[in-house]
Amino acid sequence: MSQAAERFAQALRLSALGSGLVLFAVALVELGTDAVGVVSLEAMGRIADWRDALLHSAAGLAILALALACHIGATLALTARRATVRMSWSDAAEILSGILVPLLLLPALVDTAGAAMLFGVTDDTLYRLAKLWPERAPFYVALIVLLWAHGCLGVHQWLRPRAGYARFAPLLGVIALALPIAAIAGLIASARVAGVLMADDSVAAQIRSLGHWPSGDAESTLGRVRWIVLAGYGIVLLAAVAARVARLLRLVVAPKIEVTYVNGPTLKTAIGPTLLEISHGNGVAHGDGCGGRGRCTACSVRIEQSAATLPPANAAERALLGSDDSRIRLACQIRPSASLTITRLATRSDAAVAEPDIDAAGIERQIAALRIQLQDHAVLTRSRAAYDAIFLLNAFLDAAHDAVSSHGGWIAGMTGGGIIAVFGRDGELAAACRAAVAASAAMDVALDRLNERFAAELGGPVKAAMGLACGPAYIGRIGAGPAKPLTAVGVAIDVASDLAAQAERRGTQLLADPTIFRHAGVDASSCEVLALSEGAASQDVFAVSQARGLAFAQA
Length: 555
Fold this sequence. Notes:
Elements: H1 3-35, H2 41-55, H3 58-81, H4 89-119, H5 125-159, H6 165-198, H7 201-210, H8 216-253, E1 256-261, E2 266-270, H9 275-281, E3 300-305, H10 315-321, E4 328-330, E5 340-344, H11 350-354, E6 363-374, H12 377-382, H13 386-405, E7 410-415, E8 418-423, H14 429-458, E9 464-477, E10 486-489, H15 491-506, E11 510-512, H16 514-520, E12 528-534, E13 537-544
Parallel strand pairs: 1-5, 9-11
Antiparallel strand pairs: 1-2, 3-4, 3-5, 6-8, 6-9, 7-8, 9-10, 11-13, 12-13
Helix pairs in contact: 1-2, 1-3, 1-5, 1-6, 3-4, 3-8, 4-5, 4-8, 5-6, 13-14, 14-16
């Protein structure tokens, strides 16, 4: 894609964001005004007069019309330009609600601002409560809910990558839920008062006359205008669908390139989509914290080969990455035009994403712990250049992570040379122990793939030292300052770490507490039994040279 086209896409994103924030602010004012109706119709009317003085002025109406047109156009254009229909649920909900909102909003605007411009109707609070609300109450409730949900999703996507947002998100969520409920309650309460006023025929006639309510002919005209406006929006939707289909067809016939992921697959893909879209479209796990909008660094990659074929990063991308290395890029901001080899610097962990928010006070659980560390990692890293050492450690840690996450575990801690994994936070201890044993076997198998890549270069095989234990542990968010990751502490964690250290000193692959084998139902008849002494205490453990050879006893 040319730089001009990329600048146009960036302009569309800025237009959608800016216009969306303007419309969200207007929706906030509208719902806040409606919520005052819980207090009294008079108070609601006074605040509505201030609102109308601002929003119903010529400048206010022009800004609102421009923001609405820009938001609809930019959102549909960005949706049509997507290279894949695979997306997160939040992106899908935002897009779907964004398409549905105009179907409800445009007729409402015809009933209010349109009636005021065409027939001189006084579009005040009493007109809306006494005429529009009784006739279309379900319609307006649906509009409030859908419009507010769309706005909150957009603001959430915008703020989510920003530091400090997580601290205020719960409070903002409560406000976001309470405001539309209060607005609907205020409309209902005020509409009842208006209904009492309209029950007096003389008062009702005076209200209709002073407010220049539309006549029967005017109502018919407004009905036709509503259909014309909806038909126009339908044409815009069809144009967006046509553009979407045309883009998909262009991708089908576009030249193909290969994208190779270090520690991942090699894909054959069309020229045109961003690297992040290529990953998502082919089901490749790739970090994505902002929906590909260039607002975070979760999708960052290192270009291992063919970095020169990409256009240089713009100022915004460089500022976000904070790196002088031209090979470090944001996957959502680059569109490969030649074959690439890349390393994902922050792959998405579905297990980590799925972890619920646990209170800082923590919970106690019976868990299985697996410590995996790279044997002689200090020697290996000191003897290599910084880049090569980091590359080796990342490859080993990625393999350990995959072995753990594929069996339902999660990473509770990490050091330069290894990880501590926990199993069974929500399940029974026996199942957790079986999963931990299976993960150790998967790590043993993963070493074969690592040695295919590194053994010749290192002059010897890559080896892991592992420790297995089970027992009680405290799970919670522990840390200093704002950084409090989910982690675990307890006897099982300490024992697993000690066993891994003993395994490394003795040159064996795995040492396991007999308790975990008993709970897991492992046939330990072929395992070597070692007596470990610590001070005056002695402990028997099972030594395993190859974890893949472990077998579960037949029930």
